[in-house]
Amino acid sequence: VQLQASGGGLVQAGGSLRLSCAAPIIIFSKNIMGWYRQAPGKQREWVAHITTSGSPMYADSVNDRFTISRDNAKNTVYLQMNSLKPEDTAVYYCVPIKYNPYRSTYDTLDDYWGQGTLVTVSS
Q: What pLDDT score was predicted for residue 1?
């Protein structure tokens, strides 16, 4: 099963978009859910994640501008993006994540990467 993100599009700098990603309940209910992005010519990078209990974490580059949330009734994770900048232009992906206590790392469940949704921010 590949998770499909939606809600991307073209927006002017300073604008907002909300991304959504639904997952099967067996995946959604048991895992941290995360958002990653990949800009043209760059490596994929972590943006934010949210635990099953609703605790969020953010990359410094998006803190105070982006908000991650999850609706457990709809098995959906959201990414509200405000004050968008041209450097936010990227394909955005959602993916389930597991915390590895032995290495103290957050590991993506790579079987679930989808095609992502393109966010383009014009200056």
A: 83
